[in-house]
Design goal:
- It is built from 17 helices and no strands.
- It has 310 residues and is an all-alpha fold.
- It has one domain: Up-down Bundle (Methane Monooxygenase Hydroxylase, Chain G, domain 1), CATH 1.20.58.
């Protein structure tokens, strides 16, 4: 584009916005040039780590979880583009799905950073300052679940037969699979872990659940041309995402927790050994894309031999 064409395009852009192009050009004349540290907001980002103890490895724990949350935001950013593109093409759907999977591949392969990066003695000291907080309370992770699959697949398997599309969202929320981790199994009373989480996010979650009820990844996949839904490459990409999130990522998290906690209780008080293991959760985003044998072995044999179809 020539200088004249560029100026004409700028002039048109601001006139179409009802703005005076000369004012914006004058502002550009006096503006400071952009720097990397201002664009990325490096100082703000590096100032977000606040320790509650003087134990050095607490900083590893904080930064690792902040990195996770940034990756969760990237994943939600990609899902949002799929969800809100009307009549999405198979090519665009696949492009965003590949991005989402790469982010989760990175997450699933990253647990050694925390699993091997902290001294157990330090962890067992600073973890007491976290109570009753827990990674369970990652709102972005819960949104990724809501945005990936139909809500019925996130309901505690014991209650799925009693819930359908006519069930109020509040009732469905109360029977999500992760609710079991925040309740006393004998009394049904909610833990502080769960009540804090719900007080902060429940209304936001229900709004999000309603939004993605018909815009989640599985629903968008089913909107693709029928021939493309049978494409083995695309099916394998869907299976890879499902397996990575609901088996590999979960097991990596579980194994890291075992190293530090042994049989100890989680900071939030949840029965984490049972809550986290995929064979108990039975959380599967796209069950229609797995064989009955694979569904029966979910989280037991790690499905390494069943990740792709020929």
């Amino acid at each position: 584009m020539t200088r004249e064409e560029l100026l004409a395009a700028i002039d048109k852009k601001y006139k179409d916005m009802g703005q005076n192009p000369d004012v914006h050009l004058s502002g550009l004349l006096h503006a400071e040039p952009m720097t990397y540290w201002d664009f990325i907001q490096v100082d703000a980002l590096l100032g977000l780590q606040t320790q509650r103890t003087q134990l050095p490895d607490e900083m590893v724990f904080i930064m690792y979880h902040q990195i996770n949350e940034l990756l969760f935001k990237m994943i939600l950013w990609e899902i949002q583009q799929v969800a809100h593109t009307e009549n999405i093409s198979t090519q665009k759907f696949s492009m965003h799905l590949d991005r989402i999977s790469r982010y989760f591949d990175m997450l699933a392969q990253s647990f050694d950073i925390m699993g091997e990066g902290m001294e157990p003695e330090q962890y067992m000291k600073f973890r007491d300052t976290l109570t009753p907080a827990s990674g369970f309370q990652s709102a972005q992770y819960r949104k990724i679940e809501f945005a990936s699959t139909e809500l019925i697949n996130l309901i505690d398997i014991r209650f799925r037969a009693t819930i359908d599309r006519n069930t109020p969202f509040q009732h469905a929320f109360d029977h999500l699979y992760w609710q079991a981790a925040g309740k006393d199994h004998q009394t049904g009373e909610k833990s502080k872990l769960l009540t804090n989480f719900e007080d902060r996010y429940m209304e936001e979650f229900i709004t999000f659940m309603k939004e993605y009820n018909t815009l989640n990844l599985w629903t968008k996949f089913k909107s693709l041309p029928e021939e493309d839904q049978k494409d083995k490459t695309l099916i394998n990409a869907m299976r890879h995402y499902d397996h990575t999130v609901n088996v590999l990522w979960v097991m990596a998290h579980l194994n890291a927790a075992k190293k530090y906690l042994g049989d100890s209780e989680a900071t939030g008080g949840s029965p984490w050994q049972k809550y986290m293991h995929p064979k108990y959760q039975r959380r599967i985003f796209f069950p229609e894309l797995w064989s009955q044998e694979e569904l029966d072995g979910w989280g037991i044999d790690n499905l390494e031999g069943h990740k792709s179809i020929d």
